[in-house]
């Protein structure tokens, strides 16, 4: 094909233009790509810096003190701790908005005969509110002058590590001979309690017992308690004062082999209250023996007889080393949230525990002490009656009243009890097995393993077991006794974040100041909640 000179020129010109345009387009795209890449890099760096600052701020707000060697549990705990603090800040803001002082200092005025504040709900005005607040403030615990000045319970409960260290040092001082007299004044003697309790009116007033219902909601919801004790009357009295409310009812089982002075003191103390009484059939309780479970059954019978007088909804069993970490109102709402179910440990029996009920056990004829355990034999037991499925659990429970009625009257249950009388530590499998006797047992769960519950999943009580600290919960800040942590001041910030109603265990000889701080925290929280409840009509 022949091209004219004009055509050849045109083709060459167009080709040059195209190459020029392509070269420019390539440069533009390359510059755009570089700009985009730089912009993305800047955004990523900015985001990382911002996120890092936010995470540092998050941890700083959350942590009560610096934790070393942070692990998954620490992060979980810090996160929950922050949520709790946010809730408390919101609560404090609401209280401030309503001009309600959270921690008033005027504690000197004690009303001799407080009136039932629920009668004032129909008519609430400024004068009534101030009157009711005065009644409630009379129940706020007066500071014990023997408590060391360096003890700052408020900071300890927030988890401030310097305050915890000061609390530990103060507790060590009280344990020395130099401060022995001061420590004795912090822990009332059995004789002093008995002398005081002989004048019931003065005793309840001086010890600031809550002698009136603190809300209409609590007044309408009675709770039954079973408390098994065998020693240390002052600790029992402190526990009773912390959980006492006039609408509740309390059965106290005193070990039949306890010292006579202890039994007499418990009788004088319980006689001060219409709704606190000693079990009508006290028995000699032996460790790992059926008698521990029988003590609860005897109290259940007594409580059932008074259910018309005090129409209790649930029963909670305790020992003298338990202490509440919730107010009565919080306990009431926790029980309501169960929606008619019971709450207790119950899980498929581990292989090493099956011999507890597969073999016959004897009680030693001459037990050396309270902790002498049942003696195993080679005698094999027959299978459980009525094809009861066996589960493992704990001695502690929360049972609805219908469940207690069933326990006391059902023939199948009575035969199951009889079969367990020669088993080892039956309280750690009988209650758990009943809870899976579904659907016959009121408030029970089906026997399938998916319904298993351990102590962290129930609301009964929180315990730190030896060997699980640092893995399941923070390390014990007190001292381990027979594999259980006796709590100290350093445990309190963690304890009050838990969903459980009670904590076990506390010992005055290990850390009396931890008990003091927790007792005051529960009482202050009780008063603060009651004031807000009354001012609003709800909480």
**Count of DSSP-assigned helices:** 19
Radius of gyration: 32 Å
> Which strand-content bin applies to the residues?
5-15%
Distance N to C terminus: 99 Å
| Gross geometry | globular
Task: Work out the helicity level.
Answer: 40-55%
Tally of extended strands?
Answer: 13
The average pLDDT is 85
Biggest β-sheet: strands ordered side by side in the sheet: 3-2-1-4-9-6
Low-confidence runs of at least 5 consecutive residues: 54-74, 76-110
Largest sheet: 6 strands, mixed
Assign the structural class, choosing from mainly alpha, mainly beta, alpha/beta, alpha+beta, or little secondary structure. Answer: alpha/beta
What does this structure look like?
- With 539 residues, the protein is α/β, with parallel strands linked by helices.
- The chain contains 19 helices and 13 strands.
- The strands form 4 sheets. A 6-stranded mixed β-sheet has the order 3-2-1-4-9-6, with helices on both faces. A 3-stranded mixed β-sheet has the order 5-13-10. A two-stranded antiparallel sheet has the order 7-8.
- Strand 2 (249-254), helix 11 (260-270) and strand 3 form a beta-alpha-beta unit.
- The longest helix has 58 residues, at 5-62.
- It is globular and about 130 Å long.
- It starts with a helix and ends with a helix.
- Residues 54-74 and 76-110 have low confidence and may be disordered.
Summarize the structure in short.
By secondary structure, this protein is α/β, with parallel strands linked by helices.
């Amino acid at each position: 094909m022949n091209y004219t000179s004009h055509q050849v020129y045109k083709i060459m010109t167009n080709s040059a233009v195209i190459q020029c345009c392509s070269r420019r387009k390539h440069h533009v795209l390359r510059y755009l790509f570089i700009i985009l890449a730089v912009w993305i890099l800047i955004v990523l760096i900015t985001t990382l810096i911002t996120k890092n600052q936010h995470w540092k701020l998050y941890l700083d707000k959350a942590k009560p003190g610096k934790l070393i060697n942070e692990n998954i549990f620490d992060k979980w705990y810090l996160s929950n701790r922050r949520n709790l603090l946010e809730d408390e800040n919101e609560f404090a803001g609401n209280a401030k908005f309503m001009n309600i002082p959270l921690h008033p200092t005027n504690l000197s005025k004690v009303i001799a005969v407080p009136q039932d504040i629920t009668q004032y709900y129909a008519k609430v005005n400024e004068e009534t509110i101030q009157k009711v607040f005065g009644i409630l403030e009379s129940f706020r615990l007066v500071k014990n002058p023997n408590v060391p000045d360096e003890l700052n319970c408020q900071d300890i409960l927030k988890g401030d590590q310097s305050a915890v260290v000061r609390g530990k040092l103060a507790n060590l001082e009280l344990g020395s001979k130099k401060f022995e007299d001061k420590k004795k004044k912090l822990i009332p003697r059995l004789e002093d309690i008995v002398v005081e309790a002989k004048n019931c009116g003065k005793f309840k007033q001086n010890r600031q017992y809550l002698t009136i219902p603190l809300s209409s909601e609590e007044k309408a919801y009675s709770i039954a308690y079973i408390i098994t004790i065998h020693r240390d009357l002052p600790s029992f009295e402190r526990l009773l004062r912390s959980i006492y409310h006039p609408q509740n009812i309390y059965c106290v089982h005193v070990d039949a082999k306890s010292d006579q002075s202890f039994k007499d003191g418990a009788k004088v103390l319980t006689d001060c209250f219409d709704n606190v009484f000693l079990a009508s059939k006290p028995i000699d309780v032996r460790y790992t023996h059926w008698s521990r479970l029988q003590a609860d059954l005897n109290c259940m019978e007594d409580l059932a007889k008074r259910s018309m007088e005090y129409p209790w909804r649930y029963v909670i069993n305790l020992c003298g080393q338990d202490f509440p970490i919730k107010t009565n109102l919080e306990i009431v709402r926790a029980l309501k949230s169960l929606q008619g179910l019971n709450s207790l440990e119950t899980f498929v029996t581990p292989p090493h525990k099956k011999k507890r009920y597969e073999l016959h056990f004897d009680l030693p004829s001459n037990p050396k002490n309270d902790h002498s355990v049942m003696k195993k034999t080679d005698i094999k037991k027959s299978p459980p009656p009525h094809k009861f499925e066996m589960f493992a659990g704990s001695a502690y429970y929360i049972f609805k009243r219908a469940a207690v009625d069933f326990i006391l009257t059902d023939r199948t249950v009575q035969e199951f009890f009889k079969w367990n009388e020669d088993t080892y530590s039956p309280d750690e499998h009988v209650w758990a097995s009943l809870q899976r006797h579904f659907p016959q047992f009121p408030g029970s769960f089906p026997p399938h393993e998916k319904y298993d519950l351990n102590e962290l999943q129930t609301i009964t009580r929180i315990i730190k077991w030896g060997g699980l600290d640092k893995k399941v919960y923070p390390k014990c800040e007190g001292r381990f006794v027979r594999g259980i942590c006796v709590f100290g001041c350093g445990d309190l910030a963690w304890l009050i974040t838990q969903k459980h109603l009670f904590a076990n265990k506390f010992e005055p000889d290990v850390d009396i100041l931890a008990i003091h701080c927790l007792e005051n925290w529960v009482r202050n929280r009780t008063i603060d909640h009651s004031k807000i409840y009354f001012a609003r009509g709800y909480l």
